[in-house]
Amino acid sequence: MALSVSAAVLLAILVFILMKGGYVRLGSMLACTLFGFTLAATGLAPAINSALALLAGLLSSL
């Protein structure tokens, strides 16, 4: 749970920075957000979560 909250906060900050910098516009941001919510409701969600947990484990071991 803590990993998903930390990842969500980090990604929210990244999206905010990209939007403020002009790299991502509001329409693109909304489309990507809706895609993420839709993807989370599919059968791929457990695989994505386990891949993120594996990546976090690899990064923490460095």
Class per helix and strand makeup? mainly alpha
Instruction: Note the gap between the termini.
Output: 22 Å
How many DSSP-defined strands?
0
Low-confidence stretches: none
How large a portion of the residues is in β-strands, by DSSP E? under 5%
Structure annotation, total helices: 3
> What summary fits the major beta sheet?
none
Query: Considering DSSP H and I runs of 4 or more, what fraction of the residues is helical?
Result: over 70%
- Series of H and E elements: HHH
Count of structural domains: 1
Give the mean pLDDT. 84
Q: What Rg is obtained from the alpha carbons, in whole angstroms?
A: 13 Å
Describe this structure in words.
This protein is mostly helical and 62 residues long. It has one domain. It is built from three helices and no strands. The longest helix has 19 residues. The radius of gyration is 13 Å and the shape is flat. The chain starts with a helix and ends with a helix. The relative contact order is 0.10.
